[in-house]
Design a protein that fits this description.
511 residues, 22% strand, six-stranded antiparallel beta barrel, single chain, five-stranded parallel beta sheet, alpha/beta
Length: 511
């Protein structure tokens, strides 16, 4: 994924100090970029694009960045004093994410040898402030990272932004297709698709289930057989499921056919995500000899496609489908996993009070604590009530973060909650995948804050991402972020929401 992208590094300088100084600036910049790339911490390659010494040079680089699909963002650093007025026209044109790196070539001051020539050359201490001022005056959204370029902490903060910038680039041509509409009368999964495309980049299209069924009809039986064998190799299961004349095998076979049909239409349309709806599954009469359609909601297919990186949202939730794709993309190369989840039911248990996260079938196996089990059970919801296959597991007990996007009419709000997944118990009467977590700072405060912020019952969870990823995402997107963490109190959080409301109302009136 990340190998297709680049981050452009631009060093700020000027010609006041002569050509030799510019040569030194260039040499230092190349060494720093090479060092960052060799650190192994930053997943996107940084490409040095030279020293900008004039307004024309800055503008040319920024226009080139805009027009290069490989460039996901621009990093700037002021080696010497770079007069900020020369950055105005270029920054006005830049439409890619911006990171300002406040660093210095040398780590320590050479006390015994420092002279005026050294001072003239190494001026990041005030050159970066000059640049920072013009960015602030221009009201530019950007990330500022402070630290020496060899420092792991600074490199890790750049790496977070790099992942977010790459995921942002991925979302700018993201197509989400909806099979059927959303669940009737539900508000939180709905929203303004036009505004979402303007603000967040992705496009949402309706696709009739009848079109999906055309792919379903064309699935080759031999391919289904092969995929069923893959299921049996990858997942724990009862041997009885392998009996080809059994009802269980038939359910697994139907699930494999559904996966192949979904994969084929997603590939054909170039879609990066999809939604389903248990009220629209094709022909309604499963007993009709000419039956065309899924035997139930395609849960196993959704689980496996999520693990491969397809965005998914249940009940037509296109915002969650797009957000999950972004979560998965940002997490590439990180070890712990992510999933679409839904608040299912509450467990009141004093200090251990928690929320069970599950769904009918569609939880991603990347978060499983142990090898998932392939099981077949009855599902009695939606237009079709039938036995259907799914992966059953519980999630790893570990800290993570969950996020959702809601449409408030005048803006999108990103709601982020730090959570702690705890050890769950088996659910013999509810055979679904699940997670059990305590929202930070505690069950009562975390749940109340989520509700006050207008949070959805769906969210996109990750063990690997932190709130910093979401801060960078909200900054790049220009949307509100409400973060619920260990320090959250309800009075302070309510005030934050009120202040944000005033800020966005004022911004809207000024546009």
């Amino acid at each position: 994924m990340f190998e297709n992208y680049e981050i452009w590094w631009v060093t700020g300088a000027q010609l006041l100090y002569g050509g030799d100084a510019v040569i030194s600036v260039d040499a230092h910049s190349k060494e720093m970029v090479e060092g960052l790339n060799k650190s192994g911490r930053i997943p996107v390659k940084i490409v040095y694009k030279g020293t900008a010494n004039s307004s024309r040079e800055v503008a040319d680089i920024m226009k080139a960045a805009n027009n290069d699909d490989r460039c996901v963002g621009v990093m700037t650093w002021m080696h010497t004093f770079s007069p900020a007025k020369m950055w105005i026209h270029g920054l006005q044109q830049l439409n890619k994410p911006l990171l300002h790196f406040h660093t210095q070539y040398n780590a320590e001051i050479p006390w015994d040898t420092m002279d005026m020539d050294f001072m003239n050359l190494n001026q990041s201490a005030h050159g970066d402030r000059e640049f920072g001022h013009i960015c602030t005056r221009m009201r530019l959204r950007r990330k500022v990272v402070v630290g020496h370029w060899t420092d792991a902490k600074a490199q890790d903060r750049i790496a977070v932004w790099a992942r977010v910038a790459a995921a942002w680039a991925d979302s700018q041509d993201m197509l989400i297709i909806r099979f059927g509409d959303q669940m009737n009368n539900v508000a939180v999964t709905d929203g303004d698709k036009v505004e979402a495309e303007q603000r967040l980049g992705y496009h949402v299209d309706y696709t009739p289930v009848s079109e999906l069924m055309e792919y379903w009809k064309k699935v080759d039986a031999a391919d289904v057989d092969a995929l069923v064998e893959t299921y049996f190799k990858e997942y724990a299961h009862d041997k009885a499921l392998e009996e080809k004349e059994s009802a269980g095998y038939k359910s697994v076979w139907n699930a494999a056919r559904a996966e192949l049909a979904l994969r084929a239409i997603l590939k054909a349309k170039g879609a990066k995500g999809f939604t389903t709806n248990f009220d629209d599954l094709g022909c309604d009469d499963i007993n009709d000899p000419n039956f065309v359609g899924f035997d139930q909601i395609p849960g196993l297919a959704s689980q496996r496609l999520m693990a491969e990186g397809y965005g998914f949202g249940a009940e037509g939730d296109w915002k969650s489908a797009a957000l999950y794709r972004t979560v998965w993309f940002m997490s590439q190369g990180l070890p712990k996993g992510c999933s679409f989840l839904e608040d299912y039911t509450l467990n009141f248990d004093g200090a251990n009070s928690s929320i069970l996260q599950a769904h009918m079938l569609e939880i991603c196996p990347l978060i499983a604590e142990e090898r998932p089990r392939l099981e077949v059970h009855f599902l009695g919801i939606g237009v079709r009530k039938a036995q259907t296959a799914r992966l059953v597991f519980t999630s790893k007990p570990e800290k993570g973060v969950t996020a959702t996007v809601v449409d408030l009419g005048n803006r999108f709000r990103l709601i982020v909650n730090d959570v702690e997944c705890i050890k769950s118990k088996p659910l013999p009467k509810l055979p679904v995948a699940s997670a059990l977590w305590i929202p930070m700072p505690d069950f009562e405060t975390g749940a109340a804050a989520w509700i006050l912020a207008g949070g959805t019952h769906h969210s996109c969870f990750s063990y690997d991402l932190t709130s910093e990823y979401w801060e960078d995402y909200a900054e790049i997107a220009g949307i509100e972020m409400a973060h619920i963490n260990k320090d959250t109190t309800i009075p302070t959080f309510k005030n934050e929401l009120r202040w944000n409301e005033v800020y966005y109302m004022l911004n809207k009136s000024l546009c």
